[in-house]
Design a protein that fits this description.
It is built from five helices and twelve strands. With 223 residues, it is an alpha+beta fold. It has two domains: 5-113, Rossmann fold (3-Layer(aba) Sandwich), CATH 3.40.50; 118-213, Translation factors (Elongation Factor Tu (Ef-tu), domain 3), CATH 2.40.30.10. The longest helix is centred in the middle third of the chain and has 15 residues, at 99-113. The chain is rod-shaped and about 80 Å long. Helix 2 runs parallel beside helix 3. A six-stranded antiparallel barrel has the order 5-6-11-8-7-12. It has a four-stranded parallel β-sheet with strand order 2-1-3-4, sandwiched between helices.
Length: 223
């Protein structure tokens, strides 16, 4: 379907949305095909594998099945054989009376196929006030959270004199003797960092996470 077409694409390759377009007249069908083709960019593309005039037939269904395409009907409908074939072959048929609605649906499908943008969100900062060596664990930094929140599942940068010296995962986060999911501004905590023990008093731990942000065709064009 248009909604889950992204799942059929191969990562790392240009993603194609294959369409079969049928219209009641040649002019509108051609105009629709041209409008949809203009949505293509370097990452995603519309490929009209067939454009024709008249009702949607069983032959159209078989062609769409072979091409991995979705059928778009403009002012036309499938005949009974075509409906049965579409159900049997798992081919989606989308019917429209307004070109704009077809274009917007295909635009949404293409945007769903765009690779999301990775965005970094700073959660908070903690300053190292003391150090504790724990056997079989390593160094635990006694910290004061000076803004935001330190989250147990976040990543952390170790900043020393304004220079990043390490970037990794939080191994442990504790309030007194208890494990904590997060510690907020103004509170103290103990933080252990995975595979890093070269912590010094005065270091700043910058906690952050990475988020996947959906993109639009407009944002992809300006990237």
């Amino acid at each position: 379907s248009l909604e889950d077409f992204m799942a059929q694409t191969t990562p790392g390759q240009k993603r194609m949305l294959n369409l079969v377009i049928k219209g009641d007249q040649g002019g509108p069908a051609e105009a629709l095909a041209d409008a949809l083709a203009q949505l293509s960019n370097e990452e995603v593309s519309v490929d009209v594998v067939h454009r024709g005039v008249g009702a949607i037939t069983e032959s159209d269904i078989l062609l769409a099945r072979a091409a991995g395409a979705i059928i778009i009907g403009f002012h036309v409908r499938p005949d009974n054989n075509a409906r049965a074939a579409a159900d049997r072959e798992g081919v989606e048929i989308k019917l429209y009376k307004i070109i704009y609605e077809a274009v917007e649906d295909v635009r949404s499908a293409l945007e769903g196929m765009l690779r999301p943008e990775e965005k970094e969100v700073i959660l908070g900062e903690a300053e190292v006030r003391d150090l504790f060596k724990v056997s079989r664990v390593g160094v635990i930094a006694g910290c004061s959270v000076r803004n935001g929140v330190i989250n147990r599942t976040g990543r952390v940068r170790v900043i020393r004199d304004g220079v990043e010296v390490y970037d990794g995962m939080i191994a442990s986060l504790r309030r007194f003797k208890d494990d904590a999911k997060e510690v907020r501004e103004g509170f103290e905590c103990g933080i252990g960092i995975e595979n890093f023990n070269d912590v010094k008093v005065g270091d700043v731990f910058e906690c952050y996470r990475k988020e996947q942000v959906a993109r639009t065709l407009a944002s992809a064009a300006t990237a």
